[in-house]
Amino acid sequence: MDALVVKAQKEDKTIIIQAGGNWCIWCLRFNTYIHETPEIKELLDKNVLYYHLNYSQENKNEAVFQKYAPEGGKLGYPFFIVMNKDGNVLNVHDSGSLEAGKGYDKEKVLTFFRKSISR
Prior knowledge:
- The chain is of the alpha+beta class.
- The chain is built from five helices and six strands.
- The chain has a four-stranded mixed sheet with strand order 2-1-3-4. Strands 5-6 form a two-stranded antiparallel sheet.
- A hairpin with a 2-residue loop joins strand 5 and strand 6.
- The two termini are 20 Å apart.
């Protein structure tokens, strides 16, 4: 996390952490969606350091979650931790509100990311 903050400061970017794991179908869907939707990918590439923080039975990352999002797991997975370039948590956001059917709603996802960047 410290290296991520140093990089964010250097590049003047917002940090968004996607919490979840490879066992989570919604985590995999979101990751694929943001990388395969050109408008979203471009927005993130220019403005965000995007990091996947694993949560699994083998690696719960308890210290990191306790520090940055102690209530995050109650939101379901994935959830997002939005941080400024200095590593201060600005928001912890669920992913359910971004869903549409068995995928994600482009406008909701873009709105979430744009609001996160403008903080």
